Amino acid sequence: MDAKGHTKTAQGFLEAADRELADGDVLQGSEKLWGAASHAVMAAAQERGWDFGKHGAMKAAVRRLAQESGDPALVSEFAVARSFHANSYHDFMEDDDLEENRLMVRGFVEKVTALNGAA
């Protein structure tokens, strides 16, 4: 998949997450939010020729994006996105945290996508 494909996938996952969470499917909605964030990072990394094949490489790519953009919040926002991956297995998020964190991940995806030429 190329960077444009990863960007399209990220946007599709955001839409799917909204639907699934609205339907009460927290586990699938959580996994889609993680997928949206990770595909946004994959698009950015791929455009820049950076490795993104493993979690550690994606974390490093986010740190580099934070430096490049001057937006250190990207690092903590990506950590929140990673918590959705864990939530998809363990369903530990409270409803208010779920909504607040969902909005943070959406913002993260939008910011990272805006940094990409394939947006």
Number of helices: 5
The H-and-E topology, N to C, reads as HHHHH
How many strands appear in the DSSP assignment? Answer: 0
Give the % helix. Answer: over 70%
Low-confidence stretches: none
- Strand pairing plus helix content: what structural class? mainly alpha
The oligomeric state of the chains shown is: single chain
Mean pLDDT: 93
What's the Cα radius of gyration? 13 Å
What fraction of residues sit in β-strands? under 5%
Q: Give a quick account of the main beta sheet: strands, pairing sense, barrel closure.
A: none
What is the general shape? Answer: globular
What is the straight-line distance between the termini? 14 Å
If you had to describe this structure to a student in words, what would you say it looks like?
The protein is an all-alpha fold. Helix content is 82%, strand content 0%. It contains 5 helices and no strands. Helix 2 runs parallel beside helix 5, helix 3 packs antiparallel against helix 4 and helix 4 packs across helix 5.
